[in-house]
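Molecular record:
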Amino acid sequence: MQIRPILAALRRHRLATLLIAMEIALACAVLCNACFLVAQRWNLIRIDSGVDESALAVLSVNGFEASQAADVNARMLAGLRGIAGMQSVSLINQVPFGPQAGAAGISRDPGSFKNKIGVVDFVLGGPGTYEALGLKLVEGRLPQADDYRAATTFAPPDAQVLVSRALADHAWPGESPLGKEFWCDKLHFRVIGVVDHLARAHPHDWGPQAVEWTVFTPVLPGGSLAGTYLLRANPADLPRVLHEARDAVAKIAPDVVLDQENSRTIGELRADYFKSDRIMIDLLIGVIVTMLGVTALGIVGLASFWVQQRRRQIGIRRAIGATRGDILHYFQTENFLIVTGGIVLGMVLAYGLNLLLMSQYELPRLPLFYLPIGALVLWGLGQLAVLGPALRAAAVPPVVATRSG
C-alpha cells in the first residue's frame, strides 16, 4: 500500500491528526517515566534485607539512664529468654526498616575527608546477634569471642567488623576487602569478613547504590548498646512470642518504658516502611491505565469519525476492486503513521520529563530501553484501538456506500 495517499489524506485533517499525535506523545512520556518509577519503587520494596525476617522481631525500651544500661540489659535478657518458644535474645542497635541509630561517614584515612568512602550504617550487635540475624558470610571469618569489645563512644576502638558485599565492592572495587582498614573520624576499623546482604535501616534515605552500605560491628552489651533487643523464634510462634515479650516488660523492668511503635516483627516493620511506596505504585499504575485508556478512546473516536466521513470513498474503492483487507490495512497504516509521529515527539518529552524528575527528586536517568518498550506498547494499543472502526469500514457494502450522499 502506498503511503503518499495516506499522508495526503492526513494533511486534509491536520488539526485532528495533530491532536491525536500530541495525545500519544504525552502518553509516551508519561508511560515511560511512570513505568520507570514503578520499577524503581518495586525494586526497592523487594530489597533483600539479608536477615531472616520471618523469624525475627525487635523489642525496644527507653526511659533509663546510661548508668543503668548494664542492669537493664541483664534483667531484660534474662526475662525475655524465659518466654516459651523464644530461641534467642540479643542486643542490637538497629534493624532493617526500623529506627536508624548508627549512620556515619567513613574514610580510608584517619580524620580525612579527602579519601572518603561514604556514609554507612553501623549495625552494632552483641554476642549471638550475628547468628540470630541469619546473615550469610561470603568471605572471611565470623566474629570470635575476643572481637566483642566495649564501646567507648558509639563503637569500640580498633573494631574487627564485617561489611556488606555492596559496601566492599564500592570501597575496594576489584580487591579483596579482608584486612582493609577504614576510619570514622578517629575510630579505627578492620574488615574481617563480608556478608552477602545487609540492608540499611532507612533505604529510602540513600541512593539505589547505597541501600546496603552497612558495617556489622561486634560490641559488648552496655553503654551505647542497650535497650533494643533482637528476638528470634519459630515463624509460626513469633507473633505470640512478641506479644508475650511486650506484656512481660512491665514485670521484668518496671522502671523502663516500652517503645510500642517500634517493638514489632521485622516483617511488620518492612510492610509499614514501604507502605507509601505501595500506594505510589498503585497510583502510578492507575495513571498509566487511565492514560492508555484515554489515548485508546481518542484513537477509536477519531477513526470512527473518519470512517463515517469516508463512507463514500470507501464504497468507491470497494466498487473498483479494493478488498476488505485493503480497506483494513489502509486504516491500520494510517493509524501507524499517526502513532509513530506521536511516539517520536513523546520520546523527546519523556527524556525532558526525566531530566525534570532528576533535578527535583534526585531520580536516576531513565534507561534508554524504556523508550522502545513504550513505543511498542503504543503501537500495539493504536492497532487494537483502530481495529474496530477499520473492520466496520471494511464491512461497508459497496452498493450502500455509493448510494450515500
The longest strand covers residues 116-125. Residues 4-45+276-403 form one domain. The chain has a mean pLDDT of 89. The chain has two domains: 4-45+276-403, 100-119+128-223.
